Structures are given as C-alpha cells and as structure tokens.
Amino acid sequence: MATELKEQIINTSLFLFEKHGFHGVSVNQIVKASGTSKGGFYHHFQSKDELLFVIHDYFISYVLTNAEKAIVSSTYPTDKLQKIIKSFVTVFDLYKAHISVFYQESTYLKPKYEETIKQKRQTYRDIIFAVIQEGIDLGEFRPEISVSIIGMSIIGMINWSYKWYKKDGEKSIEEIADMYVDFILQSLLTEKAKQNPEFQSYFLHNRLPTGT
C-alpha cells in the first residue's frame, strides 16, 4: 500500500511538472492532485527536491543495474553491449515521463542530489567504455576506433530517442532497440566477428523470412 502511494505521488508530480514546471508546482498541489495528505507525502519524500531526485534516479538506476547485469551474465563483449543497448533503449518506453522531466527540470536539482546522479551517469559511461575496450582487446571490435568517441556517440544517439519516440509510433520500442543493436554492431564488429554464429541473431537481415 505504501509503495502504491509513493508511485501515485510520483506519477502525479510527473504530470504536474511536465505541465507547469518544477517551480510552478507546490507540495500542496501534488498532495491534492494525488489524493493523499501532507503526512503521506512527507512519509516518502523529505521535500519536493528529493522527489525530483527520485524521478531522475529511477531511470538512471534502471539502465545502470541492467548494464551491471549484462557484464556478469555474458562472456562476449558483443553480447554485453547488445544487452546494454537493449535495456538503454527500453528505458525510453518505461520511463518516458521521468526522462522528459529530467531534461526539462534537471537544472533545479540540489547539489547533493546532482552529484549522486553525476556519479551514476559516470559509472554507466565507464561500463560502456570498458565493454568497448574489451571488445577491441579480444578482437571482436575494430581496433582503429576511439573508445571514448564511440562510447559517447552510442550514449548520445540513444539518448536523443526521448525527443522523437512515441509509444503509438510506427515501430515498437523492441523493434527500435533491435535497429540500434544492428546499426551499432554492424559499425563496431570486425569482419571476422560478424561471421560468429553467436552474434547472427543481432543482425536484422538474418531475421528476414526465407525468400525475402
């Protein structure tokens, strides 16, 4: 019940922040719109600032946790990167409102909360960079690429999805994720690695019906 109330407060605040902005919404408005009490609000959040932090933290923690799982559950760097990309893209469907508020209101994060978010984002970047470097070291990824440039390009390209992705769009989030995986791995993998049977399912042309 307590978890349901917390989610209700978060979802209500997401709607209000998107519509009126962080400073255009008071705790009283959130309490009233979510059908709770001030006591209920402050049981879950110390302040409106902490609520904004939690909204930011939800999706960052999601992608970070899934990236960490990918590292321990896969042997090949290609498999690790595929899982990281898929979970990264999926977040734009699961937490679309959270991400919209993040880009709209992130400048209002208090320093202590901003530092926590920065650390998690840096950890996420480090994981992606490490996977790319591992792929180069093991001969799966092209050796001439720059780890930092390619890593930041992947992050930037996928991040931009929040600008155009629509739940009722032409492609599902799963189809979009598969396209990103194909596009990125086609660019990264060596010609030899592209022939590895373990990776064939990641390429869209291998999924076409026979005779197409």
UniProtKB/TrEMBL annotation:
InterPro entries: Homeodomain-like_sf, HTH-type_Tx_Regulator, HTH_TetR, KstR2_TetR_C, Tet_transcr_reg_TetR-rel_C_sf. Keywords: DNA-binding, Repressor. It comes from the Bacteria. The keyword Ribonucleoprotein does not apply. The keyword DNA-binding applies. Coiled coil: none annotated. SUPFAM superfamilies: Homeodomain-like, Tetracyclin repressor-like, C-terminal domain. Residues 26-45 bind DNA. Residues 3-63 form the HTH tetR-type domain. PANTHER family: ACREF/ENVCD OPERON REPRESSOR-RELATED, ACREF_ENVCD OPERON REPRESSOR-RELATED. This is AcrR family transcriptional regulator. It comes from Peribacillus huizhouensis. The lineage of its organism: Bacteria, Bacillati, Bacillota, Bacilli, Bacillales.
